[in-house]
Specification:
The chain is 40% helix and 16% strand. By secondary structure, it is of the alpha/beta class. Helix 4 links the parallel strand 5 and strand 6. The chain starts with a strand and ends in a 6-residue tail after the last helix.
Length: 281
């Protein structure tokens, strides 16, 4: 698939499947390759799926500059428009959910249905301490392991999956690690992506989201060592502040619940979007 010029940046994208357009937005510093393992094979049967590599990741350009989740949202919408897509469903996981919030806030006419997965608005209450910049635990891992090994081990800890799942499903962990390393993000843009995630703050703007919204999160996604806080609490904040939002907690799932139980997760995504079609059949 091609690299296309969008304003000042070359962005890599892929189309898969047929139907109403669905844009998938990846987590921190990841290429779109991670969607191919467990989500794309199913979702492409229902939607025309648009995958993209953010600036700084995968096969897209990697300018050495300050990044923000709002910038990634602008890039995604600009790409949609260059590709002739005026309106689409948008789903983002983790940092991708933060990017998706900005898409819905800044470009409301571009969003049909919105899925915010394992994500949050930044702070969830006034006066809350929230880490900005690169979290300490992340820096320690990068220093001790190096970037390549950290990317390889990204899904092998208690944050992404319950320990027993990591123990019992080594093939899943291996496949996801290999996906991370297929088009790895270099260190400088990877760090800039982490900073973009940690600087994200939309809590006081969530009322501007008008599209039908599903907030979905693993019930065990409470491990705060990654720097983004308790995602169950963050999800509850999103659902409480977005008018009409539905909240689903996937029992037994951690941050990567959608890869831990893909059939269940994909069914939740498809059901919601089919209940909120872009056009009536």
């Amino acid at each position: 698939m091609p690299l296309i010029k969008v304003k000042d940046i070359g962005l890599y994208y892929e189309f898969h499947g047929e139907g109403e357009p669905l844009v998938l937005l990846s987590g921190t510093g990841l290429s779109c390759e991670n969607w191919n393992v467990f989500q794309l094979p199913d979702l492409r049967n229902h939607f025309r799926v648009l995958l993209l590599d953010y600036r700084g990741t995968g096969r897209s350009d990697k300018p050495d500059m300050h990044y923000s989740t709002r910038m990634f949202a602008e890039d995604a919408v600009d790409l949609m428009h260059v590709l002739g897509i005026d309106r689409a469903h948008v789903m983002g996981h983790s940092m991708g959910g933060r990017v998706a919030q900005w898409v819905a806030i800044d470009y409301p006419d571009s969003v049909a249905g919105l899925i915010l997965s394992g994500t949050g608005p930044g702070t969830v209450e006034d006066g809350q301490y929230y880490q900005r910049g690169v979290p300490l635990n992340t820096m320690i891992q990068l220093i001790e392991k190096g970037l390549e090994q950290r990317l390889r081990d990204h899904f092998a800890d208690g944050f992404m999956f319950p320990p027993e799942f990591v123990r019992d499903h080594p093939e899943t962990i291996k496949r996801l690690g290999e996906a991370n390393l297929k088009h790895p993000t270099p260190l400088r843009p990877y760090l800039r992506h982490i900073i973009a995630r940690q600087e994200h703050e939309t809590r006081h703007l969530l009322h501007k989201i008008k599209s039908p919204t599903l907030v979905v999160c693993g019930s065990g996604d409470r491990v705060a060592t990654g720097g983004a806080g308790d995602h169950v609490r963050s999800s509850e904040c999103l659902a409480a502040n977005i008018a009409g939002a539905e909240l689903v907690l996937v029992q037994g799932g951690n941050h990567s619940y959608l890869r831990q139980m893909p059939e269940k997760a994909n069914a939740i995504f498809v059901d919601f979007l089919k209940r909120h079609p872009m056009r009536k059949s």
